[in-house]
Amino acid sequence: MPGVDRWLVCADMNTAPEDAKRPARDTDRLRVGYGEDAHRLKAGRELIIGGVAVPESLVGAEAVSDGDVLLHALADALLSAFAQGDIGVLFPPDDPASRGLTSSVIVATALERIRQQAGAVEVINVSAVVTLDRPKLGPLRNQIVAQVGRLLGVGPDRVGLTFKTSEGLAQDYVQARVVVLVM
To answer: Can you give the chain as a three-state secondary structure string?
Structure first.
């Protein structure tokens, strides 16, 4: 493969020799972030996924905040794209101000923080997987996608959302994984 040996020679420097000389490209601003969150499910709590209440659920996420695993994973993905830690840094679990916090505030704060560092930030797309055995989330897909898109300022065509079950391996928890591409 052409050019591979130049990378091998410079592997310990993490850059190619001409990188310092070449003009900046739009792709230089692309960043990928990954976030993951999981919560045990508990009776007496409301289940919220992507800012949308799940009316058929008899249990909700046990958490300091509203326990929205999708928005927590999204906030972590945004922060990780800019090496800004995770939501525990912004909202420590032992801080009384974090108690009952709405996860849309967490996402908005993560966006504000990365914009302070990088200036204008555009979300290119989001790909998310939510794992929950029951209730089935499929009927809420469009509503969740629309809400996540609103929070990020992108259309629903930029929010990929997949629902999975644990196949009975972990019926008492909910989990989300998110990858985000930003520029």
So the answer is: CCCHHHHHHCHHHCCCHHHHCCCCCHHHHCEEEEEEEEEEEEECCCCEECCEECCCCCEEECCCCCCCHHHHHHHHHHHHHCCCCCHHHHCCCCCHHHCCCCHHHHHHHHHHHHHHHHCCCCEEEEEEEEECCCCCCHHHHHHHHHHHHHHHCCCHHHEEEEEECCCCCCCCEEEEEEEEEEC
- In the block, tokens 């505030």 appear at 105
In sequence order, the 6+-apart residues with CB closer than 8 A to the CB of 60 are: 41, 42, 44, 45, 46, 47, 48, 67
pLDDT value at residue 1? 46
Q: From CA 121, how far away is CA 116, in angstroms rounded?
A: 10
Report domain 27-182's class: alpha beta
Residues sharing a CB contact under 8 Å with residue 115, sequence separation 6 or more, in sequence order: 121
Structure confidence at residue 28 as a pLDDT band (50, 70, 90)? confident
* 143, two tokens: 């509503």
Over residues 83-99, mean pLDDT = 94
Report the chain's C-alpha Rg in angstroms. Answer: 19
Model pTM score: 0.86
The pair phi, psi for residue 80, each rounded to 5°, is -70, -30
The size of the chain, in residues, is 183
